[in-house]
Write a structure and sequence with these properties.
The chain is an alpha/beta fold and about 260 residues long. It has one domain: Purple Acid Phosphatase, chain A, domain 2, CATH 3.60.21.10. The protein is about 30% helix and about 25% strand. It has six helices and twelve strands. A hairpin with a 2-residue loop joins strand 10 and strand 11. The chain is globular, with a radius of gyration of 17 Å. The mean pLDDT is about 95.
């Protein structure tokens, strides 16, 4: 199985169109099964510009003509959530899907954030706790009570079915894969404990930290991919592809050079 991957496009009309078109044509030429966009599709400086950026970016990505799975990032929420979901073709900002022997679990890292009304008293308390700590950044967020329960159920289903799990989240889930300026998922420790307790979880893919990062903990690979928007600073990765076998993951850049070759436990 091979799928295309890109993150942190922060699309600006005119400036990024040529490079994004090259990414989609690369996926077509490589014959990938589908593609994943890992969040922060738009710059999101104001709602009107964000709407324009969203429509143009999705139009260019649509030239891929295959399935594109979207992840909601913090900048994406410059567009009202329901409007954003409709444009991205999502019924829920967190979801899972199965391809061959792999279950992909897509998490919504802005579930508890300044952009949403808390769904439970626990979520309200969590939001207040993190907002009292400005060093953790109000452009980050957390996974709420209902999504955590859903995640547990998805992992249990994967274990019963003998599936290998790839976790997708816009935010980094380990401090070793980001820096203080960018931050990470607010309740990353709690989510890490849930993930590391499941033998089905093999890797976590994300963005947000524009320089990219990697760490392995308890046999799980935590990979943060470099941002598309910074392609002039790190031309070694603008977009790429992920090849999955039962015992191996290979991530290549747009030039087909290997970025990571990782054994799956």
């Amino acid at each position: 199985m091979r799928f295309g991957i890109i993150t942190d496009i922060h699309f600006a009309a005119g400036r990024d169109e040529k490079y994004l078109q090259e990414c989609t044509s690369g996926w077509r030429n490589d014959g990938v099964n589908f593609a994943m966009q890992l969040g922060d599709l738009v710059r999101g400086e104001n709602v009107d510009e964000a709407r324009t950026e969203l429509k143009r970016a999705t139009s260019i990505l649509g030239t891929f003509r295959g399935t594109i799975r979207h992840v909601v990032g913090n900048h994406c929420l410059a567009v009202p959530e329901q409007e954003l979901m409709q444009e991205l073709g999502l019924d829920s900002p967190y979801y899972s899907f199965v391809v061959k022997d792999f279950r992909f679990i897509v998490l919504y890292g802005m579930d508890v954030s300044i952009h949403r009304k808390p769904e439970t008293p626990e979520d309200a308390g969590m939001l207040g706790y993190y907002l009292d700590r400005p060093e953790l950044h109000d452009y980050c967020g957390a996974i709420g009570k209902q999504q955590k329960a859903w995640l547990q159920e998805a992992l249990e289903k994967a274990e019963r079915s003998g599936e290998k799990v790839i976790i997708i989240c816009h935010f980094p889930l380990l401090q070793e894969t980001t820096d203080a300026k960018h931050g990470l998922l607010w309740n990353h420790r709690e989510i890490y404990d849930i993930l590391s307790s499941s033998a089905a979880v093999k890797a976590c893919l994300g963005g947000h930290y524009h320089h990219g990062g990697y760490a392995v903990e308890k046999g799980i690979h935590f990979i943060v991919l470099p941002a598309f928007v910074n392609h002039s600073e790190h031309p070694s990765f603008c977009s790429g592809s992920v090849e999955l076998e039962r015992s191996k993951m290979v991530i290549r850049n747009q030039h087909h050079d290997i970025l990571y070759e990782l054994a799956l436990r």
